[in-house]
Amino acid sequence: MALVELTLLLVFIIILLKSAEHVVISASRLADFFGISTLAIGVILVAFSTSLPELSVGIISSINNKGSISAGNVFGSNIANICLILGLGAFLYGFSITMKEIKQVVVILILTTIISVYIIFHVNFYGDALTQIEGIILLGIGFWYFRNYLKDYGTDNHHNSHNRNELEHVTKHKALQEFLYFFVGILIVLFSSSMVVRYAVKLAEMVGLAESFIGATLIAVGTSLPEMTVSLQAIRKKKYGLALGDAIGANLTTLTIVLGSSAVINPIDLTLNVFIAALLFAIIANSLFLYFAITSKKLGNKEGMILIALYVFYLVTIFGLQATELVT
User: Fold this and answer.
1) Per residue in 159-207, pLDDT tens?
2) What range defines the domain where residue 78 resides?
3) Contact in structure between 258 and 54 (CB atoms under 8 Å)
4) Looking at the 3D structure of the chain, how many domains does it have?
5) Mean predicted confidence (pLDDT) in 261-276
6) Residue 50: closest CA among 234, 298, 306, 204
7) Among 12, 198, 218, 249, which is disulfide-ready with 43 (CB 3.0 to 4.6 Å)?
């Protein structure tokens, strides 16, 4: 029976990824129609669109009082976005980072690190759940940041006049069509994510693995594939700003909008060791990537291998923690 659940889980993850991919395409064309800049597309529109699987998984799991899946998915995705996605991009293609991009990336990395440190502090000293009030605060931080970013780097961004949106022109008729595709894509994302949560919980119960472990590994990697697809394609085409905005912007989206929404629906228990380990690895990943960006200005094979190795070490660590919890 476990094989049937695993097969269905993988099938719905694939549907989830494909539907999210179409949402990204439609959203990008709509952004072109409304004149949103390339930088804003990377950090806000594309990052938010590729984070739809995490958002839908978070909402559905919290409604079903399975908030541990949402938290594990968010923390696991944050590490995957830095170590796996950007690590693979650096290893396969290599990419450079300008000082202007570093300044924008630093703010996001600092914000996500502060949030991660706060959660660790909260768990260690209070040992309870992430409350609904804290969920509202996270949502507020997310909306505040994205609103200000759109104001500074969105439409009519004179700092990036040389890097105007290069997406194909979209007519009004095409824009309406893309909006319909966008709406349908979101509906499919929500449905398929609910199925992913359903079969992930079944697998967790049948195999004896904790839901947090399933969320931080299989679902986290699966829901990070939209970011991976877009970012690797952008790096291959030398659209480095778009790739960075997608991968790193998605981290802020998941930590604020996704985790915040989940906590507002139902408080999330964060006392599991797997969560603490994931947050610590996320902080290390942020620091390591920032160090590479500032000192090297270009990430190549060596930096990519280090980031990928850190991700493998992360998987081994949380698997060990899971095994220890089962033994005790």
Assistant:
1) 444 444 444 555 677 778 888 887 888 788 778 877 877 787 777 777 7
2) 2-327
3) yes
4) 1
5) 82
6) 234
7) 249
Among the residue ranges 17-31, 105-119, 178-192, 263-277, the one predicted with the least confidence is: 17-31
How far is the C-alpha of 195 from the C-alpha of 197, rounded, in Å? 5
The β-bridge partners of 130 are: 268
Q: CB neighbours of 137 closer than 8 A, spacing ≥ 6?
A: 260
Residue-level pLDDT at 140: 94
Q: What is the pLDDT of residue 327?
A: 58
In sequence order, the β-bridge partners of residue 299 are 95
pLDDT tens-digit series, residues 299-327: 999 999 999 999 999 988 887 876 666 55
Nearest to 150 by CA among 41, 248, 48: 41
Query: What tokens does 315 get?
Result: 């998987």
Read off the tokens for 71. Answer: 């938290």
Residue ranges with strand state E in the chain:
95-96, 129-130, 268-269, 298-299
- Residue 35 backbone phi and psi in degrees, to 5: 75, 30
pLDDT confidence of residue 216: 62
Beta carbons of 146 and 9 less than 8 angstroms apart:
no
Contacts of 213 (CB under 8 A, 6+ apart): 72, 204, 274, 318, 319, 322
User: What does the pLDDT look like over 271-287, one tens digit per residue?
Assistant: 667 778 888 899 999 99
Mean pLDDT of 91-102: 86
* Strand locations in 167-300 (E): 268-269, 298-299
Find the angle CA(92)-CA(75)-CA(8) to the nearest 5 degrees. 80
Task: Tell me if residue 209 falls in helix, strand or coil.
Answer: coil
CB atoms within 10 A of CB 284: 17
CATH number for 316: 1.20.1420.30
